[in-house]
Amino acid sequence: MPVVIDSCIVGNWKSTVSKLRLAQDDAAGGANVSLQIAASGVGILDFDAMSDIHALSKAMPLEYHYAGKLSGQFRTLNAGVMVVEGVNYTGLRVTANLKSPKGATISLFEAKPIIELAKPRSASTAGNKTDTRTNPDVSRGIDATPVVSSNAYTCNASLLVLRNTRLNTAWNFTRVVARL
């Protein structure tokens, strides 16, 4: 089956913000993630320049960021609906710290491979194949499938918003225009 891709999402993008809304906490940050989507639908995300995401918890604020790259096959099913398949997470890591009310930093993990953080949903699926989908609600708002867990999008000439409607997250990207 040929890959269907909305031509609007094809190109080079840079994140401006990621937002997460939970019942009690909100999180925002995550600027400077690079996203390249080819006309074939192959996408590469580079998190190395990413700024921290700040989760504003009443108990203890959490700061985290990803580093490394991941790739996958983007498909737009129809206007505003998308999936990312065949995601390779092996190069993606996450660092997370809690901030105590007195200003102390408590390290939760440093450059932890995201595949270690993710928990399989089930041991097996149809046949003997392992279900490689992960539980995205891994640790107080840290998404084990950042950006690629999105199932909806909006796009225009300069703005791409990727949303996960189940987790109430959004990643905003602006188009990167090549300079001559």
In short:
The chain has 180 residues and is mainly β.
Molecular structure report:
This protein is an all-beta fold. The protein has one domain (7-175): Lipocalin. It has one helix at 114-117, and strands spanning 11-21, 26-29, 34-37, 42-46, 53-56, 62-67, 69-78, 81-88, 93-99, 105-113, 152-155, 159-164, 169-175. Strands 1, 2, 3, 4, 5, 6, 7, 8, 9, 10, 11, 12 and 13 form a 13-stranded antiparallel sheet that branches. The chain is globular, with a radius of gyration of 17 Å. The termini are far apart.
Question: How many beta strands in the DSSP annotation?
Answer: 13
Total of helices: 1
**Major beta-sheet overview:** 13 strands, antiparallel
Strand content: over 45%
Rg for CA atoms: 17 Å
> How would you classify the helix and strand content by structural class?
mainly beta
CATH class: Mainly Beta
CATH topology: Lipocalin
CATH architectural group? Beta Barrel
Q: What's the average pLDDT?
A: 85
List the helices and strands and how they pair.
Layout: E1 11-21, E2 26-29, E3 34-37, E4 42-46, E5 53-56, E6 62-67, E7 69-78, E8 81-88, E9 93-99, E10 105-113, H1 114-117, E11 152-155, E12 159-164, E13 169-175
Antiparallel strand pairs: 1-2, 1-3, 1-13, 2-5, 3-4, 4-7, 5-6, 6-9, 7-8, 9-10, 11-12, 12-13
